[in-house]
Amino acid sequence: MFSEPHYDGLHGWIEVITGSMFSGKTEELLRRLRRAELAHLSIRLFKPLIDTRYSMESVVSHDNTRLPCVRIVNPESILADTQNVDVVAIDEAQFFSEALVNVCTALADAGKRVIVSGLDMDYRGLPFGVMPHIIARAEFVTKVHAICVQCGSLANYSHRISSDNNLILIGEKDRYEPLCRKCFCQVCQQQEHSTSTQNIFSKQ
Ligand code: ZN
Predict the structure, then answer these.
(1) Cα 152 to ligand 1 centre (Å)
(2) Which pLDDT band, with edges at 50, 70 and 90, does 11 fall under?
């Protein structure tokens, strides 16, 4: 479990919580924020306007714990809204534009503790948007894992059950399932096989 360094109000840093869907990222983010509140630090939590799961005004984890949040479109609005804040947290960060990289860097450079939570890979198993760039700049990176629904191993991938091909498709267990590497590879091979079979038939 991550043990945060003592925050002195002068030395900022970036910490990242990442992993697949259903891996407990938001639970871990809320745990760190509750501890920051116990340490009498001022916190502010942001999430993208696109994410409407569970609640419009709070970040809610799968276990139904919640903290109030500010929902934004443009990451640069975080800068103006956090001047007197010690800890700046960003949930579902993979949905923000690349401007979030400079925002996180500026906040940490200004002495703030920045906590970023988000998916590291999209449903295809490819690096997701801005996340790899923030991970590269972070002092601390915590990768959490779900449990593979097929074999019970540690899951690293968010496999999309739905046939929708849009990169951003908000959903829960109706649309995604956590899979380990082995099971994800098997599913991808089966899908490639069925797609190539469809192509053979469509050419006839
Ligand atoms: Zn598996």
Answers:
(1) 6
(2) very high
